[in-house]
Write the structure tokens for this entry.
Amino acid sequence: MNYDKKTLYTPQYKITKSLSPGKKINKHLNKKKINKYYLEKSLYNKWNEIIINYEEYTLTKKKELKKLIRLGIPDNLRGYLWQKFGLINKENIKNKYNEYKLNNKNLENKNEEDIIKDLFRTSHSTFFKNKFSLGQKNLYNVLSTFSNQSETGYVQGMSFLCASFLSYMNEESAFWMMKNLMEKYNMKGYFQNNFPELKRSYYKLLKLLKNIFPKIYFVLKKWKIFPDYYARQWFLTLFFLDVNYDVFLRILDIFLLEKNFKIIYRISLALLKLNEEKIYNAENFSDLMIIFKDIGKDLTVNQLFTEGFKIKIHINILEKYGQEYDDLKEKDINDEIMEQLIN
């Protein structure tokens, strides 16, 4: 996908008459829409500049790019930028996906049944929801080919990420995004047997929770509610199932740019903080599990990001907690006990 000056992002709102003093504006535009127009026009100019000078921004202006990404990527640029963030070099991989897909037809896929089941669970769009739709066909092709080309095979949760990519790009690009998630974003360990990286992430989340929001930590500990009861899909689907789709896309924007899990920990802690009153008032284990079932469905991007970006998390802290977990693993301590060992 190539962009030039003729195909770049343009604002959603069009003002048909001058906004200079003394001139009337389009009567159908209210003040909110006018303000949104000016914001979009400003972003329009900036995004055009970024697309044209992408390499310069990633090398010398990454902080500026990071701030802009937090405001959200224009929807019609997501596919292009996600592929840029995901480091897809199309010249080096040209036609390989089609070769893999062709070979895949002659291979037995032990994940076939699981993939087909999950096709019908991926319903954020009618493109995937309708039986035998083009979306389902594309999703099946990518997941089936990926499962035979990946060390992990297919694991439930992958379909949501793959479908999100297919909403913004073709099969080939979505396939390489999935491959790069495993290899360049360190997600392979979240889907391997026994989920080793997932368990390390639980440990890190508990350490962060105890240090930042200790009251919430002790309530959950009191009722013996550990991250595997609520955070599994946070890490495996990057919140696809726990927040509204527009919020998920904004989280994914940041994750793909930053190439680390800081945003996932921030949003995890923000979800808990924004629901702290409900958590404190829970009278038993079941009450808490009901809270977690819909924990982020009523929250907006602004609420989650405002709370999440108040939380300072440094990569070296996450690495330290990861090393602590590894040291405990070497002592052959059971994972559930390990969670309880955080004093």
In short: The mean pLDDT is 84.
